[in-house]
Amino acid sequence: MKHSFTLESTFALPRAFLLFLYLLLCVGALAQELDIQAQKVFADEKKGVTIATGKVKMVKGEDKLNADEVRIYVNKARKPLKFEAIGNVDFLLLTQDGRRLKGKSDTLIYLVDANEYQLIGRAQVQEIGKPNFLRGEKITLNNDNNFANVESSSSAPVRVIIDLNDMQSNQSSPQNSPKDKQPESKSRQVDSILDPKPESKELESTPLDSSE
């Protein structure tokens, strides 16, 4: 039996997370320098893939992504189609509105055309300094549909912690129309899984390495 939880238009964390990944991974559109360090880089133009392996570090300003391997897939016109970070993936970032986020997963995938991000395997996302937190076997974030979906197995249930003050602020914002408000039944579903004492140190076991 699978546990699944979907949020629409009320959770501020996914949008900030999507913005970070878009800026970090879309190499051709970067306005700032993207620094990629790895022990080995291999490019296969015929297959349209570039692979960086061995303690891969991607840094852009204060945003950082670490993984054992990063793959970039492109089409014949060299337009990026998919980005994939594999093995011990973790990230740290500062968003434009001042939020600091950290997270980790076994694999992170960005599908360019679908504008969708998938964190697979022991996935976690935490907003530093706030209780906003997602944990599951798979976290899917879609910018076009503006939702976050968290899935897991029966042995490891989904966990979602949300700052209710953030939710109330988003719902009362003038830019949200009545049709965008969360149905009452879903609000009760959110409340039923909130943990009043979030484990804010869960991600501290895998700190990012900011050294050269």
Tell me what portion of residues adopts beta-strand conformation. Answer: over 45%
Spans with pLDDT under 50 lasting ≥5 residues?
A: 1-16, 27-31, 177-201
The computed structural class is mainly beta
Tell me, rounded to a whole number, the average pLDDT.
71
Q: Using the CA coordinates, give the radius of gyration.
A: 18 Å
CATH class of the domain at 32-164: Mainly Beta
The total of beta strands comes to 11
The name of the CATH superfamily of the domain at 32-164 reads: Lipopolysaccharide (LPS) transport protein A like domain
**Second-tier CATH architecture of the domain at 32-164:** Sandwich
Query: Largest beta sheet, briefly?
Result: 11 strands, antiparallel
Shape: globular
| Helix percentage range | 10-25%
The multimeric state of the shown protein is single chain
Q: Counting H and I runs of at least 4 residues, what is the number of helices?
A: 3
Topology order in helix (H) and strand (E) letters: EHEEEEEEEEEEHH
User: How far from one another are the termini?
Assistant: 44 Å
Quote the CATH topology of the domain at 32-164: lipopolysaccharide transport protein A fold
